[in-house]
Specification:
Length: 180
């Protein structure tokens, strides 16, 4: 594929064709058999598609990449800053993000982003702590229900201080054996 031809095609192609192309390109990017020069062209095409006016095109990229560690960082970072339908997919499952980035999304992101991060299948102690300190009530609830979350006693006390007036959180906290 030559990126110049792709860029011309994208300008006139119907949305459904661009969605299919976005999914196909993202799938190709995850293959280990793709040569580096091909991968560079695929990433360039995906970068062009990040600017597509149709959110469904960007959604297709996010959905296809899902939890692939081989997804290009710049693509995933752009998708994480996209509208909630798109950002929630990548923030809830993509392993390409560093703790500092996730913490930044918790501190400055929307409540939807906080909830998505609190439900990730793996969470570092630093991200758990950030959600305890800055997350909304629903993010705290998601974190408490996430079996991957490991809490310090300070984290649990902070959740109790910030969200203990909410019955559902108070009940979960009172059932924990690790809170003193």
């Amino acid at each position: 594929m030559v990126i110049e031809y792709f860029m011309e095609w994208v300008q006139t192609a119907p949305v459904n064709k661009r969605i299919n192309a976005a999914s196909a390109l993202a799938r190709a990017c995850t293959k280990k058999t793709v040569q580096q020069d091909e991968r560079d062209e695929i990433e360039a095409a995906l970068t062009v598609l990040l600017e597509d006016n149709a959110p469904a095109v960007r959604f297709a990229i996010a959905e296809t990449f899902g939890a692939f560690a081989s997804a290009p960082r710049h693509v995933m970072t752009a998708l994480a800053a996209d509208n909630p339908d798109i950002s929630l997919i990548v923030l809830s499952q993509s392993p390409v993000f560093h703790d500092a980035e996730l913490i930044n999304f918790v501190r400055r992101g929307s409540e939807e982003n906080q909830i998505a991060i609190s439900c990730r299948p793996w969470l570092s102690a630093a991200v758990v702590n950030a959600i305890c300190n800055y997350g909304c009530k629903d993010a705290a609830l998601g974190l408490l229900m996430n079996s991957a979350a490991r809490f310090t006693s300070d984290d649990l006390h902070r959740l109790a201080e910030r969200h203990g007036t909410h019955t559902d959180i108070r009940l979960i906290l009172s059932d924990r054996s690790d809170i003193t």
